[in-house]
């Protein structure tokens, strides 16, 4: 067998095996590459779905918050009145309970017990407190300015000329309870007058009315703070 025949025989013998190996490698490459591309598409689909879901959640949460903000603005004064009414009803219950539990004692002692019970109570972030006036318009309890207790408030007027205590007493005596509005300066503002809403309940045993009040602006600012905290929560949830 000459050299040329040997080469031909070698090619016949080894080339098919080589071709098989090359073909196998090509098929393996195509399969692996296809799997890689499929996984990349799956990852991209997951990423797109994740982004879509985040955007959908963000939109829903923002719309819900916008609706909540609009509703809160519309009902701010209504919510304030509800808050004041609940607080004064609590004070009335405390006072009536003290009165009923101590009916055998003299009136002066009972009055002091009621005043001592209500004086330290604070609410609405420390701004709220209870006051008491007699129906002859003398102050009985004023925790933020005790030096005015016992003073006649029959001529007390707000910036608009309304006789605040006198009018509140009339309405309270007539209806048993009343809301009323007046305008007054805040402790830290001597020139600007702010809208204030109050609520009173008539306390028949001593011919008093017990009440509290709140500046509308303060209540709205507190609501704004709560809304901002809700916005921050949404922001962190979306990060």
Short note summarizing the structure:
With 239 residues, the protein is α+β, with helices and mostly antiparallel strands.
What's the Cα radius of gyration?
A: 40 Å
N- and C-termini, Cα separation: 79 Å
Order of helices and strands: HHEEHEEEH
List the strand order in the largest sheet. Answer: 2-1-5-4-3
Proportion of residues in helical segments: 55-70%
Find the structural class using helix and strand composition. Answer: alpha+beta
The count of β-strands is 5
Mean pLDDT: 80
Low-confidence spans: none
Shape: elongated
- Sheet with most strands: 5 strands, antiparallel
**How large a portion of the residues is in β-strands, by DSSP E?**
5-15%
Distinct helical segment count: 4
Characterize the structure shown.
It is a single chain. The protein has 4 helices and 5 strands, in the order ααββαβββα. With 239 residues, it is α+β, with helices and mostly antiparallel strands. The protein has a 5-stranded antiparallel beta sheet with strand order 2-1-5-4-3, with helices on both faces. The longest helix is centred in the first third of the chain and has 99 residues, at 3-101. It is elongated. The N and C termini lie far apart (79 Å).
